[in-house]
TrEMBL record:
PANTHER family found in the cross-reference section: IRON-SULFUR CLUSTER ASSEMBLY 2 HOMOLOG, MITOCHONDRIAL (PTHR43011)
Source lineage: Archaea, Methanobacteriati, Methanobacteriota, Stenosarchaea group, Halobacteria
UniProt GO MF annotations: 2 iron, 2 sulfur cluster binding; 4 iron, 4 sulfur cluster binding; iron ion binding
Name of the protein in question: Iron-sulfur cluster assembly protein
Listed Pfam families: Fe-S_biosyn
Highest taxon of the lineage: Archaea
Amino acid sequence: MSTGTVDGSSESAVAVSELAAEKALALMDSEGMDRDIGGLRLFVQQGGCAGLSYGMRFDDEPEDDDTITVHHGLRVFVDPASLDYIGGSRLEYEDGLQAAGFHVENPNVVSECGCGESFRT
């Protein structure tokens, strides 16, 4: 059973900056995805030097038990197990000279690896 769609203001949800939403929506558009049904899946998986790592992909539709939030027109899907690790996080997009891409700012992290790709809570 789906936990439903929330506006993204819940402290347990994942927030998304306006720039990150714009970049993700542009990528969805370039892949011909339906913004009204599909969205960005943010998840946590085992791996990396610190034990856990972030994952992102586009999904055509949410799973039944996903928490679905909407930020600046972007639907974000998070499964219950991942939400335990990343609830309260913020997805940002960095566009700099050395790197460009999505970055998760997670207040639950107690340590990260040097590259910022994996973490421990």
